[in-house]
Amino acid sequence: MTITSQGGPPQIIEVQIPSGPPGPPGPPGTSGSLTDLTDVTGTPGFGKAPVDDGTGTYPLTQVTTTEDLDAILASVAEVNWRPLELADPRLVPFSTQDPRFADPAWRLTLNNVVHVQGMVACIPPLSNADVGLVVATLDPDSRPLATLLFGCPAFNNNARVDVNPDGTIIFQGMLIGGGEIDWFSLTPITFSVAGEQGRFFGRDT
Prior knowledge:
Elements: E1 2-4, E2 10-12, H1 34-38, H2 66-77, E3 82-83, E4 91-93, E5 105-108, E6 113-117, E7 119-126, E8 133-137, E9 148-154, E10 157-163, E11 168-174, E12 181-185, E13 190-192
Antiparallel strand pairs: 1-2, 3-5, 4-7, 5-6, 6-13, 7-12, 8-11, 9-10, 10-11
């Protein structure tokens, strides 16, 4: 509002007009699945994402339940080591010789990475004459897309250990010269499992 007084400059007076009572609440959103709230391809509106709260703004949409989120976080935090059964009677857990060391075991993480750990004692010792010896076999959910080669610490040497798509862990002799080993470690073995993410370079899982 503008008022002009006689002989003086124009003056601006602010007048506060009290607002009326709040309007009625908007219509309730239709019930539906979680997909209805996370689908952002359609026309925005009540019960759709981004959710229209009736004020012309579109606040963030909950895309998962608290229960589902808690379950995901619990799975991430869980450490579930599975015992690795050694396939040959000449191979035993090194803990039978020294209990300070971890038994052979493996785990599959939530992001599909396999970790193997533990030490294996060889009684009698292994040599290059034992190339092809099956050490153990991983479960079907913990196998690589193709054969992987690992260098594993061993007594006075490094052993070559392969992991195959059928899950077999194979002793493939020494990486440095010959000789014999009476123990080797499986802890360096870590890899991503085969799966949909393995469809690359023209290869199929």
